[in-house]
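Here is the promised in-class demo. Please do not try to memorize the tokens; focus on the logic of going from shape to residues.
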């Protein structure tokens, strides 16, 4: 079996997969989210570490046998810096959703650097990515800049931090997918860019070694016998691999805190003209990099979470869905869940959450329906952008993540897109994907073709003859844009 560590935005999980790619043991722990100021989102790295260790111990205690290897998949872009000697973080982790560095991005854009940065990295100049987060930590944590220049500090996304802790400080590394999300990595040469490090004023001594996603990263001895670590990938890249979307034109969409739709573009970088990201899909050991186009939606499940946790409209996400099904539509109510700005294809860090179309007859069921509508319409925008950039008409969309378990939401998505939405038998595709990457490195599976044959369809949601127009959605998006700055 392969042990997959799935460190996400709201929980840490450990899942054991057998040789057929089936999840056989699962353990999960939630951990707190911290919002110290408007637009800021932080995690306590020690809470992440302790929650992950608890799940590892629980999964191993319920396993029938020692796993052959570990794979690590993680929330991407989330940034932390720690002391190399003590291993202790110098500050809370700045989460991918955090918008505190939006003004820094505007500063670099005013200098005319956005096009150069996009050319090297495939990414827009946005606070979503790691570079401006690193810069902020070095500027705002007392003594951090000087310590970094002395080589005393280490930067990492969550995968790198877990690797460091699992190997007790012996390994400071990441993989190509996570490196490609930092705004510091040249995706053409597959190396840290001296020019970009100079632009953001980040010492290269902070940065980890970059390895293929499917390769040997080291070993951990924290849980008894030594277990090798053979795979690392950012969560959305791992999910794409787990969905076996290896052929041109195949796409997957993950419904979690946000929504993330990826389509592979092979060994060529496709430059987006419709607000998408050109990114590294993955890199297998001793093989060339595989590239992808990605559309990133910041708030999907987060909108449902907000309704039941903050507004107390419902007791659970399931009740949000149940309420949404009690009405035929949202009765004109439109929610734009831009709590931390808008991602693709708009890239507006100053957008904020907006609800329009309210009347005296609007009730909580309409708000719940509007939240689900927002998820499917944000995905529609990404699909149309992917089709425009790739010049490919999509014929189906494979889905995973917590939201994909909702039959109602998936049928709604198929109706809006006008193409089939396909859910696999194994919806733990993020963890499954990194288990496959680790197993390929280890030799448990021989090829991506062998892995692909393990993917099986559980249900196909065919679009119904329902005309759904997105005009009101796009009108509402325009209301939400630039809200923070214009106020």
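The designed amino acids, position by position:
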């Amino acid at each position: 079996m392969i042990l997959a560590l799935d460190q996400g935005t709201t929980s840490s999980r450990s899942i054991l997969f057998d040789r057929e790619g089936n999840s056989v043991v699962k353990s999960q722990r939630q951990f707190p989210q911290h919002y110290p100021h408007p637009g800021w989102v932080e995690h306590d790295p020690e809470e992440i570490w302790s929650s992950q260790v608890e799940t590892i111990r629980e999964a191993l205690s319920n396993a029938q046998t020692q796993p052959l290897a570990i794979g690590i998949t993680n929330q991407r872009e989330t940034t932390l810096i720690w002391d190399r000697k003590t291993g202790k973080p110098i500050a809370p982790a700045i989460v991918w959703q955090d918008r505190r560095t939006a003004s820094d991005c505007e500063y670099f854009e005013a200098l005319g650097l956005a096009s150069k940065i996009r050319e090297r990295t495939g990414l827009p100049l946005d606070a979503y990515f790691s570079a401006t987060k690193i810069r902020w930590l070095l500027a705002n944590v007392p003594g951090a800049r000087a310590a970094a220049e002395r080589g005393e500090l280490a930067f990492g996304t969550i995968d790198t931090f877990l690797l460091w802790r699992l190997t007790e400080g012996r390994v400071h590394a990441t993989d190509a997918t996570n490196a490609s999300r930092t705004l510091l990595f040249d995706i053409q040469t597959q190396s840290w860019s001296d020019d970009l490090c100079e632009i953001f004023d980040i010492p290269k001594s902070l940065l980890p070694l970059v390895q293929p996603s499917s390769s040997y990263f080291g070993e951990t001895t924290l849980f008894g016998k030594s277990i090798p670590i053979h795979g690392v990938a950012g969560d959305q890249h791992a999910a794409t691999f787990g969905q076996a979307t290896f052929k041109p034109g195949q796409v997957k969409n993950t419904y979690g805190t946000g929504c993330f739709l990826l389509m592979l573009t092979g060994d060529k970088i496709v430059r987006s003209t419709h607000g998408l990201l050109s990114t590294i899909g993955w890199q297998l050991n001793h093989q060339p990099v595989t590239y992808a186009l990605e559309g990133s939606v910041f708030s999907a499940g987060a909108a449902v979470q907000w309704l039941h946790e903050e507004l107390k409209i419902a007791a659970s996400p399931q009740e949000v869905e149940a309420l949404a099904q009690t009405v035929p539509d949202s009765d004109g109510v439109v929610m734009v869940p831009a709590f931390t700005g808008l991602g693709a294809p708009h890239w507006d860090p100053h957008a904020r959450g907006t609800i329009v179309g309210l009347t005296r007859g609007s009730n909580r069921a309409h708000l719940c329906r509007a939240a689900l509508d927002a998820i499917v319409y944000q995905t529609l925008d990404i699909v149309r952008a992917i089709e425009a950039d790739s010049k490919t008409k999509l014929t189906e969309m494979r889905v995973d993540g917590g939201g994909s378990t909702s039959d109602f939401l998936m049928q709604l998505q198929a109706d809006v897109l006008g193409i089939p939405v396909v859910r696999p038998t194994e919806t733990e595709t993020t963890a499954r994907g990194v288990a496959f990457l680790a197993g390929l490195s280890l030799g448990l599976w021989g090829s991506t073709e062998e892995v692909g044959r393990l993917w099986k369809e559980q249900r196909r949601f065919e679009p119904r003859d329902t005309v759904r127009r997105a005009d009101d959605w796009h009108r509402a998006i325009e209301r939400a844009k630039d809200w923070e700055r214009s106020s």
